[in-house]
From TrEMBL:
The keyword Transcription regulation does not apply. It holds the Pfam family PBP_dimer. It is found in: Membrane. SUPFAM superfamilies: beta-lactamase/transpeptidase-like (SSF56601), Penicillin binding protein dimerisation domain (SSF56519), Penicillin-binding protein 2x (pbp-2x), c-terminal domain (SSF54184). This is Penicillin-binding protein. Keywords: Carboxypeptidase, Hydrolase, Membrane, Protease, Transmembrane, Transmembrane helix. It comes from the Bacteria. InterPro entries: Beta-lactam/transpept, Beta-lactam/transpept-like, PASTA_dom, PBP_dimer, PBP_dimer_sf, PCN-bd_Tpept. Residues 645-704 form the PASTA domain.
Length: 723
C-alpha cells in the first residue's frame, strides 16, 4: 500500500514539473515574440519583412519558329536587380559600397550615389536579407556587364558578394511586327495568347506551371527557394510554322507598295505552296492614323463579296455541265442588259460586242457571264450543288482561330430571290475570305486536288517532335481533268489577253483572275468604293505557288484605274517577281561550260567569305577567298588578293559592297547609317581604317557601277511610281 502511495506522489511531482516546464516555454516564446529585441528591433517587426509561403512557379513559354527555324516569337529573360547586404565582409563592404552607389546612380538614375549607399547600409544594419535596387528590368547583356561590378562578381575571394538577379520572362519578336497578326501576341494583363498562333496554341505554348516555396521579401519581391519546389514547372512546347521569313518580308513589302500607291484603306497578301497547301506568307495591313499597321487578319476573317474572282467557280460549273464551250459565241451587245428590273453592265463603255466564252472570262464581262448562266436559271440548286462540291461553303479549318464562316446562299437560304443566282455568278450576295477563295484557285492549279491550307508544321519539345501535321488532300477532285485543263487555259488567257495583260512577265508565265466588287456600305453598294483582288498561280505550266492579293478601297483620280487589273494584279506581279528571283530551282538551267570563268576586273569585290566561296564554286571562279569573315578584293596587276576587314575598333572599307553587307558591318559597330543613291558603295564619309568616331554616324554614297542583271533592272523599273 505504501508502494502505491509512493508511485502516485512521484507521478504528481512529474506532472507538476512538466506543467511548469511548459509554462516556461510559453513564457519564453512570448518574451521572444513580443519583448526581445535584436539590433534594436523586436522580432515580431523583423519577421514582417519576409516569410516563406507556397506559390505558383511560372513555366517558360514555348517559342514560335518560321519554316527557316528562325524565331518569330520567343521568351527572353529580363532581370530585377537586388542585393543581400549581409553577405559581404565588413572591411570589403566599407571599401566598395561607395563604388557600387556610383555605378547604380549611373545605371538606373532613380537615386543619387549617397541615397543608394545609405539605403544599403541601413539594410545591412537592420539585418535585411534582400534589397531591391531598381524597379527597372535589365536585359541579359546588361546583366553580363553588371557581373563585373563589386558585390556582383562571381569571384568572392575578396569577401564581397550578395548581388542577385531575379529573372522574369518577356515575349520578344525578333522580326518586329512581321506577320504580327498571324504570329500573335499576349494579353498584357493575363500573359495568355491574345490573337494569332499565340492564342490558337495557348495550351501547347504555355507549358505547365509548377508549385513551390518562395521567400516573400519586402517590396513584394518573391524569391523561389532552390530546394523548395514541390512540382517543377514544365516549359512550353515549340511551334514550327510554314512561314518563310524571306517570303513574308517580300509579301509585306509588295503589299505596302500597292497600298501606298493608291492610299488604300486595307489589304492582304497570301502566298501558298500549291502541292502541300503550306502558307509561306500571310501579310495583312490596315491604314490607321496615316500609317499601315497589322491589326486585323483580313486574309482569315475579312469575309466579303469576292467580285469577279468568283467567275472561275461559275465557269467551271458551266463547263462541268457541258452547258458551254470556250469557243462558243456570246452576244454581249452594248455592255448592258436589264434583268428582272436590275441593270447588269460591263466596265467597258460600249461593251464588248460578240465574243467567245473564253473572252467573256478574259475580259471579265458581267453581261457575258449572265448570258451564259441561262442554263442554270430554272435549276439554281444544281449550281449551288457545285459550290458545295468546290468546298466553298465550308470553313478552311486553318490552324488559326478567328476564321469567318463562308456564306454561299442557296434557294433555302433566307433572303434568296429571283436575282440571287445572277448576282452569285458574278461574285455578289456572298461572304468569302481571301483564304477561302485562294484554296479554290489552288485546287485548280493542283489539277483539281483540294488541299487544306496549313500554317503549322510541327510541335516540338526541344528536338523531339511531339506532333506533326500532314497536308490534307480531299479524297475527290473538285471537277474533271478535262474541265481543269479548260479552266487553266482561261486563267492564262486573262494574263495574256485579258484584264491582267499589262502585268505579264517576260521571265515566266503566270495565270489568274482579276476581281473588282463594289463595297457594301450601310446596305447599299457604293460606286467608286471597290474591293479589288487578283488570285492566281505561277509558273503557269507547272504551278508551284498560288497567291491571293487584295487591295481594299483604293483611291485615285480616275475610277477606271481602280479595278483589280490596275491595282491588285501589279502587286501579284511584284511578289511573283521577287519569289522567282529568290527561288533559284524555278529558273531554267543555263548551259554549262567546261572553261573556268575568270573573275571580272570591273569594280571592287567585297562581302562575306563563306558566301563568296559558295558563289565561286557554283560559277567556277578560280580565286575564292582564303580568310574568314568579311573580306575585300585588292587587285594588283592580274592577281587578286582577299583582305580581311579591320577589327571592331576600326571603320571597315565598304567600297564595292552592297548596301545590305555594308549595313551589317556598320550596325555591328553601333553606327547610324544614311545613304544616297542605289547600287554599290562608292564612297563613305568616314575613311576606311580610321578609329570609330563619336557620335557613330556615317553617310554612304551608292552608285550602279556594273551592268545589272536584267531581271533586277526590270524589278527596279516595275517598282517605280507610276509604272
Amino acid at each position: 500500500m505504501n508502494v502505491k502511495k509512493d508511485i502516485l506522489r512521484r507521478a504528481a511531482l512529474a506532472s507538476v514539473a512538466i506543467f511548469l516546464f511548459a509554462l516556461a516555454i510559453i513564457a519564453r516564446l512570448t518574451y521572444v515574440q513580443f519583448f526581445q529585441k535584436q539590433n534594436g528591433r523586436l522580432w515580431k517587426d523583423r519577421i514582417t519583412q519576409y516569410h516563406i509561403k507556397r506559390d505558383t512557379l511560372r513555366a517558360t513559354r514555348g517559342n514560335i519558329f518560321s519554316r527557316n527555324e528562325d524565331p518569330l516569337a520567343t521568351s527572353l529573360p529580363y532581370y530585377y536587380v537586388g542585393i543581400d547586404p549581409c553577405v559581404a565582409k565588413t572591411d570589403s563592404f566599407n571599401k566598395k559600397i561607395d563604388s557600387l552607389g556610383i555605378l547604380l546612380a549611373r545605371k538606373f538614375g532613380e537615386r543619387s550615389r549617397d541615397e543608394y549607399t545609405y539605403m544599403i547600409r541601413k539594410a545591412r544594419e537592420s539585418g535585411r536579407k534582400y534589397v531591391l535596387l531598381s524597379r527597372k528590368k535589365i536585359s541579359f547583356q546588361e546583366r553580363m556587364a553588371m557581373q563585373k561590378w563589386p558585390f556582383f562578381r562571381r569571384d568572392r575571394r575578396q569577401g564581397l558578394g550578395g548581388g542577385k538577379f531575379d529573372a522574369v520572362y518577356q515575349r520578344y519578336h525578333p522580326y518586329g511586327r512581321m506577320a504580327l497578326r498571324t504570329v500573335g501576341y499576349l494579353n498584357p494583363e493575363t500573359s495568355r495568347g491574345f490573337v494569332g498562333l499565340e492564342s490558337s496554341f495557348q495550351k501547347e505554348l504555355a507549358g505547365k506551371d509548377g508549385v513551390g516555396l518562395v521567400e516573400e521579401l519586402s517590396g513584394g519581391v518573391r524569391m523561389p527557394l532552390e530546394d523548395g519546389s514541390d512540382i517543377k514547372p514544365e516549359p512550353g512546347l515549340d511551334i514550327y510554322t510554314t512561314i518563310d521569313v524571306n517570303f513574308q518580308d517580300m509579301a509585306e513589302t509588295a503589299l505596302l507598295h500597292g497600298l501606298e500607291k493608291y492610299q488604300a484603306e486595307r489589304g492582304c497578301l497570301i502566298v501558298m505552296e500549291v502541292e502541300t497547301g503550306e502558307i509561306r506568307a500571310m501579310a495583312n495591313l490596315t491604314l490607321q492614323n496615316g500609317k499601315y499597321v497589322e491589326n486585323f487578319n483580313h486574309a482569315l476573317a475579312g469575309g466579303t463579296d469576292p467580285g469577279s474572282t468568283f467567275k472561275l467557280p461559275t465557269m467551271i460549273a458551266l463547263l462541268e455541265e457541258k452547258a458551254i464551250r470556250p469557243d462558243q459565241m456570246v452576244h454581249t451587245g452594248g455592255g448592258a442588259v436589264l434583268y428582272r428590273g436590275r441593270r447588269i453592265s460591263d466596265t467597258k463603255r460600249g461593251g464588248h460586242g460578240s465574243i467567245t466564252a473564253q473572252q467573256v472570262f478574259e475580259k471579265s464581262s458581267n453581261v457575258g457571264v449572265h448570258m451564259l448562266m441561262n442554263s442554270f436559271y430554272n435549276r439554281p440548286e444544281t449550281y449551288c450543288r457545285y459550290m458545295r462540291q468546290f468546298r466553298l461553303d465550308k470553313p478552311i479549318g486553318l490552324q488559326l482561330r478567328g476564321e469567318t464562316k463562308p456564306v454561299v446562299p442557296n434557294p433555302q437560304s433566307p433572303g434568296w430571290s429571283r436575282l440571287s443566282l445572277s448576282s452569285m455568278a458574278i461574285g455578289y450576295e456572298l461572304k468569302l475570305t481571301p483564304l477561302q477563295m485562294l484554296a479554290f484557285y489552288n485546287a485548280v492549279a493542283n489539277d483539281g486536288k483540294w488541299v487544306q491550307p496549313m500554317l503549322v508544321k510541327q510541335i516540338r519539345r526541344a528536338n523531339e517532335v511531339v506532333k506533326e501535321f500532314e497536308p490534307y488532300v480531299a479524297p475527290d477532285p473538285i471537277c474533271s481533268q478535262s474541265t481543269i485543263r479548260l479552266a487553266k487555259k482561261m486563267l492564262e488567257g486573262v494574263v495574256e489577253h485579258g484584264t491582267a495583260r499589262k502585268s505579264q512577265s517576260p521571265y515566266y508565265r503566270f495565270a489568274g483572275k482579276t476581281g473588282t466588287a463594289q463595297r457594301l456600305i450601310n446596305g447599299r453598294y457604293q460606286v467608286g468604293k471597290y474591293y479589288t483582288s487578283f488570285i492566281g498561280y505561277f509558273p503557269a505550266e507547272k504551278p508551284k505557288y498560288s497567291i491571293a492579293v487584295v487591295v481594299d478601297t483604293p483611291h485615285g483620280a480616275s475610277i477606271d484605274l481602280l479595278y483589280g487589273g490596275s491595282v491588285s494584279a501589279p502587286v501579284f506581279r511584284e511578289i511573283a517577281d521577287r519569289i522567282y528571283a529568290y527561288d533559284i530551282p524555278m529558273h531554267r538551267p543555263f548551259a554549262s561550260t567546261s572553261k573556268p570563268v575568270r573573275p571580272s576586273s570591273r569594280g571592287i569585290k567585297a562581302g562575306f567569305a563563306d558566301d563568296i566561296r559558295t558563289i565561286s564554286t557554283e560559277l567556277n571562279i578560280n580565286t575564292p577567298p582564303s580568310p574568314d569573315g568579311w573580306v575585300k578584293a585588292e587587285t594588283e596587276g592580274s592577281k587578286t588578293q582577299w583582305v580581311s576587314q579591320p577589327t571592331q575598333t576600326r571603320v571597315p572599307d565598304l567600297r564595292g559592297m552592297t548596301l545590305r553587307d555594308a549595313l551589317h558591318l556598320l550596325e555591328n559597330r553601333g553606327f547610324r547609317v544614311r545613304f544616297e543613291g542605289y547600287g554599290k558603295v562608292v564612297d563613305q564619309s568616314v575613311p576606311p581604317g580610321s578609329p570609330l568616331p563619336h557620335p557613330r554616324k556615317i553617310t554612304l554614297t551608292l552608285r550602279q557601277t556594273a551592268r545589272p542583271d536584267t531581271l533586277a533592272v526590270a524589278l527596279n523599273k516595275h517598282n517605280q511610281p507610276g509604272k
